[in-house]
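Practice problem 4.
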C-alpha cells in the first residue's frame, strides 16, 4: 500500500490542486493529512471542501483548532490572529463542526502521526532540532513518526547509539534498529526557501519513504490573495528570491506552544486508531499465515500470467490523414502534433498510434500538467510487455539533421525501462529497409524530470521516419514536451 502524507495546506487552493493531481497520477491508495487545512491562505472553504472529498484520514492542526473554537487565538501573533479571524468569516457551521471533530493524532499500527510533537499533541510543540524529536520518541514506541507544523521538511533519525540527528529530506528505506521522525513540510506555506509544495509518499510494501516537490501557479495564488484583500507580506515564499530573503525559521514562527494544561486544546479526541497497515504491524506473529498467503499469491500470479498471455495486442489510432512532412517545416518548429485525448475512446491519442502488448494490464492517458503543458501517462503492470506511443510516418529528406526530445518522469514504484526510438525507413536501389536509433533518458533535468534528447542526421537513403516512446516496465511514466524539429 502507498499513502500520501500531506500537511499545512493553509487554504492555498493552487498548491493543493497541484499536489492532488500529482497524487492521483501516481495512483496512491490513501491520503493522510496532518492538519492546518485552513489559516493564512485566501481559499479556506474551497480547500476544506476538496480535502473533505479526497482525504481519507486527518488530524487537527493548531489553525484548525483555533478556527473551530478549540484553542485560544492569544497563542498566535497579531498577523496570524487577523488572518484567523478573517478565515472564520469564510466558513459555515458544518465546516467548523468538521474541523472540531478531528483527532489530535492517528495510530495506524505501523506509524503514528500528529500535527506537531507527539508527547503533548494538544500543545502543538514544534519539532525543529534533533533534541525536539526526543520527546516524541520517548512517548510512543512506533519506529516511524510523521509530523508537520514547522513548514520545513526534515528527517530526524535515531540509531542504536540513541543520539538523535537531523538529515536533509531524501528518499530512504526504513532500516531495522533505527527510528524516524519525518517532518513532511508544507503544501501551501513552505518556509524552506523553496516555493514548491512539499509532501511524502510512504510505500509500506517497499518499506520506503519518497519525497515530492510540486510546482504550481504562483501568479494565480497572488491574484487570489489580492482578491481576498489579504496582506501579501504574510506569504514569505512569494518573495523574488526566497533563499536570500526569508528570515531564519524561528523568526517566522507565529504560534507559542501551550505551557500549561489550561492552555492546551480542549474537548478534542486524544487519539484515534485507524485500521490500515495493521496486518503488516503484526507480521512477526503470523508466519504461518504469511506462508499460506504466499502460496495463494503465487497461484494468483501464475493465473495472471496465463491471463495476460491470452490477451491480444491492441493498437489504437485516430486522426491519420497521411504522412506529416519535415521538408518544409521552419527551423525550430515542432513537427509532431500535440497529444490530445479523444472523448469516449480510452487509450486513444489524436494524431498518434498507441500499441499495448497486454491490453488488459496497460493503458495510455493524457494529463494536463499544472503549468499548462499536456503530457502522456503510460501505465503497465506487465514488466515483460511493451507499451508505446508512435507518430504517424514523417517525410524527410536524406541527410536531414533533426533534434528529437522529450521529458520523462517515472513513478516511485517504476521498474523497467523507457526510451525514445527514431525509426528510419530507407529505400535504395528498389530495396526497402529500416534502422532504429535508441535514445535513453539522460541526467536529471529538474523537478524529477529526466531529459531524452539527441540531434541526429538522417541516413543517405532515408525517406521517412517514426518518433516512438516505448517502454517495458511496471508502474507509470509521465512523458511531456514531445518534439521533433530541425535545429
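Answer key:
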Amino acid at each position: 500500500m502507498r499513502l500520501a502524507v500531506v500537511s499545512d495546506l493553509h487554504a492555498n487552493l493552487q498548491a493543493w490542486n497541484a499536489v492532488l493531481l500529482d497524487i492521483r497520477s501516481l495512483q496512491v491508495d490513501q491520503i493522510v493529512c496532518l492538519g492546518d487545512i485552513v489559516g493564512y491562505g485566501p481559499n479556506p472553504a474551497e480547500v476544506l471542501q476538496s480535502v473533505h472529498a479526497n482525504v481519507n484520514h486527518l488530524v487537527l492542526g493548531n489553525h484548525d483548532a483555533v478556527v473551530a473554537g478549540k484553542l485560544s487565538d492569544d497563542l498566535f501573533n497579531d498577523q496570524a490572529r487577523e488572518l484567523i479571524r478573517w478565515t472564520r468569516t469564510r466558513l459555515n457551521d458544518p465546516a467548523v463542526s468538521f474541523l472540531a471533530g478531528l483527532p489530535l493524532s492517528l495510530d495506524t499500527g505501523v506509524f503514528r502521526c500528529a500535527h506537531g510533537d507527539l508527547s503533548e499533541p494538544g500543545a502543538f510543540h514544534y519539532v525543529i532540532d534533533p533534541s525536539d524529536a526526543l520527546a516524541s520518541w520517548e512517548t510512543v514506541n512506533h519506529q516511524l513518526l510523521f509530523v508537520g507544523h514547522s513548514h520545513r521538511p526534515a528527517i530526524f533519525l535515531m540509531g542504536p547509539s540513541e543520539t538523535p540527528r537531523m538529515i536533509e529530506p531524501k528518499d530512504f528505506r526504513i532500516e531495522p534498529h533505527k527510528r524516524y521522525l519525518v517532518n513532511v513540510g508544507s503544501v501551501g506555506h513552505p518556509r524552506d526557501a523553496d516555493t514548491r509544495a512539499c509532501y511524502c509518499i510512504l510505500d509500506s510494501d517497499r518499506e520506503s519513504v519518497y519525497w515530492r516537490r510540486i510546482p504550481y501557479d504562483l501568479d494565480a495564488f497572488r491574484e487570489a490573495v489580492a482578491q481576498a484583500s489579504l496582506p501579501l507580506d504574510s506569504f514569505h515564499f512569494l518573495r523574488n528570491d526566497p533563499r536570500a530573503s526569508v528570515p531564519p525559521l524561528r523568526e517566522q514562527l507565529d504560534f507559542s506552544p501551550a505551557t500549561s494544561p489550561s492552555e492546551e486544546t480542549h474537548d478534542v479526541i486524544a487519539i484515534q486508531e485507524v485500521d490500515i497497515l495493521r496486518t503488516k504491524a503484526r507480521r512477526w506473529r503470523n508466519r504461518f499465515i504469511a506462508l499460506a498467503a504466499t502460496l495463494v499469491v503465487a497461484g494468483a500470479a501464475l493465473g495472471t500470467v496465463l491471463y495476460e498471455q491470452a490477451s491480444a495486442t491492441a493498437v489504437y489510432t485516430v486522426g491519420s490523414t497521411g504522412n506529416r512532412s519535415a521538408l518544409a517545416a521552419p527551423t525550430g518548429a515542432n513537427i509532431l502534433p500535440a497529444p490530445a485525448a479523444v472523448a469516449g475512446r480510452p487509450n486513444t491519442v489524436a494524431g498518434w498510434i498507441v500499441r499495448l502488448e497486454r491490453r488488459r494490464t496497460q493503458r495510455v492517458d493524457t494529463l494536463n500538467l499544472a503549468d499548462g503543458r499536456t503530457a502522456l501517462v503510460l501505465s503497465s503492470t506487465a514488466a515483460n510487455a511493451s507499451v508505446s506511443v508512435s507518430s504517424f510516418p514523417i517525410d524527410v529528406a536524406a541527410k536531414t539533421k533533426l533534434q528529437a526530445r522529450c521529458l520523462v518522469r517515472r513513478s516511485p514504484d517504476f521498474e523497467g525501462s523507457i526510451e525514445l526510438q527514431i525509426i528510419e525507413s530507407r529505400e535504395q536501389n528498389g530495396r526497402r529497409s529500416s534502422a532504429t536509433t535508441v535514445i535513453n533518458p539522460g541526467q536529471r533535468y529538474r523537478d524529477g524530470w529526466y531529459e531524452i534528447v539527441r540531434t541526429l542526421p538522417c541516413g543517405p537513403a532515408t525517406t521517412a521516419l517514426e518518433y516512438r516512446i516505448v517502454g517495458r516496465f511496471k508502474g507509470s511514466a509521465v512523458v511531456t514536451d514531445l518534439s521533433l524539429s530541425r535545429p
